[in-house]
């Protein structure tokens, strides 16, 4: 009888989570991609500034693919309070039932101060509607942890974790991501990388409502430094090849870069500098290297790394 009661309680918790998710509605007309806010650009060094004015073809999403339901169960959407009734859109990845991994610039303002809070959406393939697969929950200022050495202008230590106000319930559509084990010393250059997110599909327009993904090779840092200076791309970064105009054009800041490893998705990067403008420049997208920050992630979440 104890087991029956326990399983019934778990089922009730799952139902409550879904019911709670449906109670959070969002005016999507008040949501803008993070790179549509001035603060996204003001933080960047001079060598990135020219990308702001590059003309972007409307067909840039052509090389992306629509994600299937449950294809990226670790994908998270973050709507952070940007003030004046607006929300900034970023991506993230599910670490545990309590924590989301994202970029520091997604949850900070112009002065690198933490935003008041926001809303997380898990299990979504269309963020503009409430799907039965989704779980929606809030997060507050106190639950945001930003790397203490985060430098907005230098794009250094661009990493943060977000504690959800309500724990997620893992389902077929909401699952945690795997991170490189503590003993894993691979740099992943040459691996096929997958970037997923809700990037914009019309220049200067609203961000995409549907989840998309692209696949391209992960670059070595030596290759990446042929495009970006060693001051911009360092050991704490990893880059994705821009071949075919795919790269991170279709992903969001804060979102995951994964590779396939022993049949599982392994997150190797967090989108740090990704924008539609960068796609046409032919420059690689720049990501936070997850393995570089394993100790910090362990100290600022309840994620347990494999040995």
TrEMBL record:
PROSITE patterns: TRYPSIN_DOM, TRYPSIN_HIS, TRYPSIN_SER
Ranges of residues in domain Peptidase S1: 61-302
GO biological process per UniProt: proteolysis
Keyword set, alphabetical order: Disulfide bond, Hydrolase, Protease, Serine protease, Signal
CDD domains for the chain: Tryp_SPc (cd00190)
Keyword Oxidoreductase: no
GO MF terms, alphabetically ordered: serine-type endopeptidase activity
Signal peptide: 1-23
Keyword Signal included in the entry's annotation: yes
Ranges in coiled-coil conformation: none
Family per record: Belongs to the peptidase S1 family. CLIP subfamily.
Name of the protein in question: Peptidase S1 domain-containing protein
Organism: Anopheles farauti
Taxon lineage: Eukaryota, Metazoa, Ecdysozoa, Arthropoda, Hexapoda
